[in-house]
Amino acid sequence: MRSMTSKGASVANQSCTNTNDGKTILTDADCSEVLGYAFSTWKKWRILIVIFCVQCSMNFNTSLYSNGLVGMSEEFGISLQTARTGAGVFLVTYAFGCELWAPWSEEFGRRWIMQISLLLVNLCCIPVALANNFPLIAIFRALGGLFSAGGSVTLGIVADMYTAETQQYAVAFVVFSSVGGSIFGPIVGGYVESHLNWRWCMWLQLIAGVVVQAMHYFLVDETRTTVLITNHAKDLRKADNTLNVYGPMEVKTWKETLAPKELVALWIRPFKMFFTEPIVAVLSLLSGFSDALIFMGFQSFGLVYKIWGFTPSQVGLTFIAIGLGYFLAYLSYIPAIKRNMNQRRQDPGNEFANYEGRMWWLMYTAPCLPIGLVMFAWTSNASLHWILPVIASGIIGIANYSVYMGTIDYLVASYGEFAASATGGNGFARDFLAGILTWAAIPFYEAFQEGTDQYLQWANTALAFISLLLVAATFWVYFKGPSLRARSSFAQRLADAESEKATIPPPNGRFEPLTV
């Protein structure tokens, strides 16, 4: 093995980027052995497992709150609808928080940004648990959502360790944690609601948050490419002070790093793409609506299973079916990913395999959303067994995971270096719609109640028809994708860049971080 000094000499002799003052700026091609792509398989999966736990904790935080609604309503003398404000506002601010944290993780690294985010979210749990009035709860729930980095950093970590061509399995795993974490709230919360004070919903969030923050601190290394290159340059200079090598983070001033114009441009781009790119808009709305249904379920499952006299803890257990749906969908994606990777390997120039082929399995699983909703609607009847709506919710779970995974994978492939912004629009839609529909869930069901005793059936049928339109739009993107991408300014800029790079060796696994 070469010494650090000999490595430095080798680097100094390479064609690195040079500045006017004679500094040699290292690039990822100069020190690929220290980047996240070079981590061992064991190390990558150690990091992924911890990130899985972090993502589950974040979603646990969003969903467990709902089981404290009755207790808060009784203690503070407020309506249940008012108490739901704490759930809705967390998700709405979470939608913005994910976008706001992303640029900071790209500038300063994933590890410490995630630590700061986790710390702030944990601190926000304390005043909520100790609150003596509801406005205090609403304020700190809003701040907790805003402080949550979420998928903007977790999927960014995946992109730091895997290239666009090899990251599908890792993305599928992290997506599983993102959707799966939300079901732990009602499962645990049902028992808390039945046997403990509502404040324990908040204390359990804090306990889970502290545990995962400790896991992250001790088990997750920095993965951001620019940070690793800069650290490597510092190590080289420390080993040989004659070297004049520097990392990319050392040549930018704080003024340049924190330039408001650059940060605002980064923050605005996801929203711009959401409103101007048909592919992003359609797939984000489908993904957002699918996820929002789960959070509507947190509010409405009690209405449905009250038909059979379920207790809060029994209602919570019904969410296990959604979790099983997520798990089955995750398993089903493993051979689907393998199929797509084989197609791309055998025919690298096949446009369908590289883009729309990534949505192939979604064409079979997305229809599970309206099917599951219709089944859930018309089996919510006391004359039928309660297992039928439970099975239906599992089918909805299959669709929700598949929609998230399929849309993320396609957007990453279609938008390349702009994937961070494209998937950011997807994540924003999921959290924002989930927050809005959390407020709207019970009034929505009550609106169907007048004049019929089948209001649950008709309300869920209405949701099924809405989802059917969105699923149809997904098929439209699948078949019309090439023409849509041809009219996309972002996708065309990517295609032009790819054609220019066709005659030169590609960069060493460099890929823009994702946000969800």
From TrEMBL:
Its main location: membrane. Gene3D superfamilies: MFS general substrate transporter like domains (1.20.1250.20). SUPFAM superfamilies: MFS general substrate transporter (SSF103473). It is found in: Membrane. The chain crosses the membrane at residues 47-66, 86-105, 112-130, 136-158, 170-191, 203-220, 279-305, 317-337, 358-378, 384-406, 427-445, 457-479. GO terms for cellular component: plasma membrane. The keyword Phosphoprotein does not apply. Keywords: Membrane, Transmembrane, Transmembrane helix. It comes from the Eukaryota. GO terms for molecular function: transmembrane transporter activity. It is a multi-pass membrane protein. Residues 47-485 form the Major facilitator superfamily (MFS) profile domain. The keyword Transmembrane applies. This is MFS multidrug transporter. It comes from Truncatella angustata.
